[in-house]
Specification:
Blueprint (H helix, E strand, L loop, with lengths): L1 E4 L4 E4 L1 E2 L2 H4 L3 H11 L9 E7 L9 E6 L5 E6 L8 H12 L4 H15 L9 H8 L3 H4 L3 H9 L16 E6 L4 H12 L3 E12 L2 E10 L2 H43 L16 E4 L8 E5 L3 E8 L4 H12 L2 H8 L4 E3 L7 E8 L8 H31 L5
Parallel strand pairs: 6-7, 7-8
Antiparallel strand pairs: 1-2, 3-8, 4-5, 5-6, 8-9, 10-11, 11-12, 12-14, 13-14
Length: 399
């Protein structure tokens, strides 16, 4: 930090001080500054308790406990000139203790805080001091904790407020200097999805005036935005993974029913085929690299001949040969087929499809019947033409 001398057009450094040499203490000064101005930590926070020691079977106490605008508990630990080695471990313990706090307990903790520090008749402070410190009138100070929490979260009433859900607890560490073991651990915890922030507090002396600069060093604002994006992407990926797993289960169950029906029919194509998690089920047509496929998509059912040999030239030759027999094939199939040469790809398809609500199990009986009927018709329509195409292919040279 520098001052500007307009006369000389020079800048001069402002002297950096330490809290120790200034005579400040963690509890009486740094803690109080943040308790009365939590916005110094770059967000709206509602302080609901300080020096909180309401943990079972331990006499430990955390410096400040707050709520953020999402209803998450925020554990704020303050150190003066040095973060110390154990501050992260200490904060993690407090976060674990707070993880079990219910909505009712949180409201009661805040109510105790209001009675202790902001009540005009508090035995610990004078009424006038309470009004000054709170910045509110005695009437406003008498508002209960539930009302204030609802106002802070913009909720109509406490029943609609969600507080401290799951493992949503956050940690904020504040100190003048952070040891490497602290910053290294904080960065690692961030990578594990633990919400932890480090704020560096630097006191400056400018004549008789004291200036305090508070900077977030972990994560940096840029890194925080990046992490928000990454977390959103990971959440989307997890959601997608769940959807895919559910679809795999649905498809396998559908193919079980379909194969059962095929095995009871005159069509022998799928006699030795097992159910699959995929949206297709293949069976040999008698010509290598040209399977028959049953297709089961969310909104479409399809039967097809997939011409997918290793050589593009062979695939196009077979497709063109069968296309020359189109009238005969479609007459035997008793309907128009879709002929997809797919010039930009190696493979080709001849297919027939219909729209369907495929993932609705109530429609599976009709869907299985459709697949069975149209695969039987497709096989019969293409059986002899495929034999002719295979013979013609043997006479070709695709060197």
């Amino acid at each position: 930090m520098f001052t500007v001398n307009h006369q000389t057009n020079h800048i001069n450094p402002v002297k950096i001080k330490t809290f120790s040499e200034l005579g400040f203490t963690e509890r009486k000064h740094l803690q109080e500054w943040l308790a009365h101005q939590p916005q110094a930590l770059d967000e709206e926070l509602l302080i609901i308790q300080k020096e909180f020691d309401g943990f079972d079977d331990t006499r430990e106490r955390l410096d400040l406990l707050a709520l953020d605008k999402e209803g998450n508990l925020v554990i704020i630990e303050n150190k003066l000139d040095d973060s110390g080695r154990d501050v992260v471990w200490q904060a993690l313990k407090y976060a674990s203790y707070c993880a079990s706090l219910t909505k009712g307990q949180i409201v009661e903790i805040y109510q105790q805080y209001l009675h202790r520090f902001f009540s005009p008749i508090s035995p610990t402070i004078e009424a006038g001091e309470a009004i000054t410190r709170a910045g509110q009138s005695p009437q406003e100070n008498r508002q209960d904790a539930a009302t204030r929490i609802c106002e802070f979260l913009d909720a109509p009433d406490l029943d609609e407020v969600k507080l401290n859900l799951g493992n949503s607890q956050r940690i904020i560490l504040v100190a003048a200097n952070f040891r490497k073991e602290v910053t290294s651990t904080a960065l690692w915890l961030l990578g594990q999805g633990i919400s932890i922030q480090c704020f560096k507090v630097t006191p400056y002396a400018l004549g008789k005036q004291l200036l305090i600069n508070i900077d977030q060093i972990i994560p940096t604002p840029e890194a925080r935005e990046l992490m928000i994006g990454i977390n959103a992407k990971e959440a989307e990926e997890k959601t997608t993974e769940v959807v895919v797993k559910n679809r795999h289960t649905v498809r396998r169950k559908y193919w079980e029913k379909a194969l059962e029906a095929f095995q009871k029919s005159p069509c022998n194509l799928y006699d030795n085929i097992s159910p699959s998690k995929d949206h297709w089920l293949s069976a040999g047509s008698g010509l290598s690299g040209c399977p028959y496929n049953l297709i089961f998509n969310k909104t479409v059912l399809r039967v097809e001949l997939w011409i997918s040999r290793s050589a593009t030239e062979e695939n196009k030759f077979l497709f063109d040969f069968l296309l020359g027999l189109k009238d005969e094939i479609e007459s035997n199939f008793a309907d128009k087929l879709e002929w997809l040469r797919l010039d930009e790809k190696k493979s080709c398809r001849i297919e027939y499809s219909c729209t369907a609500d495929s993932f609705n199990k109530d429609t599976w009986k009709e869907s299985v019947a459709w697949h069975l009927e149209h695969m039987c018709r497709l096989e019969q329509a293409l059986k002899k033409p495929l034999q002719k195409a295979a013979e013609a292919l043997k006479q070709q040279s695709f060197a």
